Amino acid sequence: MAGRYRLLLEHAQQLVLVCSRGEEYLRRDGAASLALLPEASLVVGLDGCIKAVGQADVIRNQFSGATFERIIDCSGKCVLPGLVDAHTHPVWAGDRVHEFAMKLAGASYMEIHQAGGGIHFTVEHTWKASEEELFSTFKHRLERMRRAGSTLVECKSGYGLNLETELKMLRVIERAKQSMDIGISSTYCGAHSVPKGKTATEATDDIINNHLPKLKELKLRGEICVNNIDVFCEKGVFDLDSTRRILQAGKDIGLQINFHGDELHPMKSAELGAELGARAISHLEEISDEGITAMARAKCAAVLLPTTAYMLRLKQPPARKMLEEGVIVALGSDFNPNAYCFSMPMVMHLACVNMKMSMNEALAAATINAAYALGKSDTHGSIETGKQGDLLIINSSRWEHLIYQFGGHEALIDYVIVKGKVVYQNERCGKMSSY
Fold first, then answer.
1. Of 2.30.40.10, 2.40.30.30, 2.60.120.340, 1.10.10.60, which CATH number belongs to 3-82+382-425?
2. 158 FRET partner, CA 20 to 30 A, in 44, 89, 118, 286?
């Protein structure tokens, strides 16, 4: 097949497709057994999309007359889809390392929160930070996520709580969307906490009457395009009624529902999300049996966050029960000042050890299912013809090393590729090529 193409990856020891039949998500048996090709190659076109996937000799013959901007020999290595981080809070100022010491001494998350720490500490510092300062630190964090293999990241606001600062955060996220080689799904999370001096009802009214109409206006003007709406549905924060009002108002202006629920207390968030047609609900450490059934029936993804349960010493989310009952299980790092983890490989490892997921299930949860949780599994999350060429090359003959090795991904990941363009290259692989 003659013509010019962006990238040829050839002779991969293992090409981990994850999906091979255009699946939107994987659950039960599908997540337990992933599609994989040995001794395979793939081609990415100039438009950044995958043009062909197959056995190395077949691809070589099919593209014998083609020219490529870049050819990478993957002999002895594995190629996987770029990882998808389905839950992060990466735009903020102020360091909360001191709170880690408090947690180690026995203070609970809500005790720190009620004493003016936690979210409120970060809110005060984020208010004071300039847009340029926030963008600089945000860009650095995204680059670290990318080096650890993430090529699509969900990014929330939520450390402003007032309209001005929430918009400042969303502008920073929009700027990264336009200027960086990484996929971003942006989330408005103005209901992350109740602002000081307001009741939950007053905060809810402000969000519905002021914040959301402004977001709709800015989207129509092409200035800020938000994808999802989030609420921290929790005892002492936003109750079920306030959560319902905010999420429905967001849905009414075209936002996907993707919110925090059933983390510290059983709130029946899962049942509410299923009822409202939520795309995803995060945390779910305290989900009810009825909530699991409702989420499975509604095809609402469960975004599980093993770093949070680990760092806060919470009960682990019931991942095995969810998987067995047909819930679409996804993973996220929950990167934030309270859970400082950039690495989806480490998240997958924790999911396997602490939540008893298999490695296949964890990889499905960090690729196709995480993409589904963001409404992007038609373009991301697997290596299939027509999908975006977001890829990961690891220096190992078995892909499971990405999960098996706890930490040290810097030595394991050789290349991270977005739209067929190498955006990270390990030093041992030579200098980066320009396009």
1. 2.30.40.10
2. 286
